[in-house]
Amino acid sequence: MVNVVIANYNGAKFLEPCLTSLQNQSYRDFRLTVVDNGSTDRSVEIVRGMWPQAKVVCLGKNEGFARANNIGAIAQDSEYVFLVNNDTEVAPDCLATLAAAGRLYPAYAIFAPKMLRFRDRGRIDNKGIYLSRSLRCRQIDSGKLDGPPDSPMEVFGASGGAAFIRRSVIKDIGLFDERFFCYQEDCDFAIRARQAGYRCLYVPRAVVYHYGNGTSEKFADFQAYFNHRNMTWVIRKNIPFKTRLKYGLGYAAYCFWRSIKVSLKGAPVAIIRAQVDGLFARGLGRTESLWRISSKAFEGMIGRRVLGGCHSEEY
After folding, report:
1. CB-CB contact of 289 with 195 (8 Å)
2. The model's pTM
3. pLDDT tens profile 19-52
4. In sequence order, what are the beta bridge partners of 78?
5. Which of 105, 127, 282, 291 has the maximal Cβ count within 10 Å?
6. Domains observed in the chain
């Protein structure tokens, strides 16, 4: 059984197509959980009207994307948890394909569907995420034209926009770090999962269409602050000191370039606050990751979009 989790904040305009696509799934062994972050629009009304049997958790205020997903992931018993953004449309056979991949590939614990752009459906949103040589989590093949279906392949991690996860992983290492609030929490989770020995498989025949920034597109300062602070938090929290020294110059150069670019777009205060709070780990505190692989093996994954292939091309 699959627990489909949607974290929502004032996403009324996206929910109807998202819920309709879930209603049209060929795979029926799933339940829906919607965690609403204190929306002031018609979000809750829409969910209850379209899906009366859904479990709706209403929070009194916006407690963040990370916390909402954490609450939803444990709200119903299931073998798998499928996190999907409210600004998505899920292809009719997506859940069936992901559930089949879970059975066919027991060595993998996390599955990344192919995400295509909602407004340009011939173009890729992402095929999962990877850790670049500047120690940033980046989306695989983002912006490229989609082509013939490729084969399943091992990638570093799945985007938080759509991720199919064995619930046993969440019980072991948790899901998202709630201190992140929103943005880069998927990168943090991917790194922690890798360090704990869990592998991620990209499943190209499972397709999700993603609008992108559906909730935060109107809040430039908000987006700039959390994105950039959390990128630095990911490194401070998870990357060994020797690895930081090895790759840190690339990240510093990126931060300098990005700070100038964002400042010119009108968010200089937010980006300065983000860099300071990130570098000094304000609000983060002490953390430890669960290492079950060697630091050398972890470094071998840096900069690689694809970590390996699979023998079967069925999914």
Report:
1. yes
2. 0.93
3. 999 999 999 999 999 999 999 999 999 999 999 9
4. none
5. 127
6. 2-210 (3.90.550.60), 220-289 (no CATH)
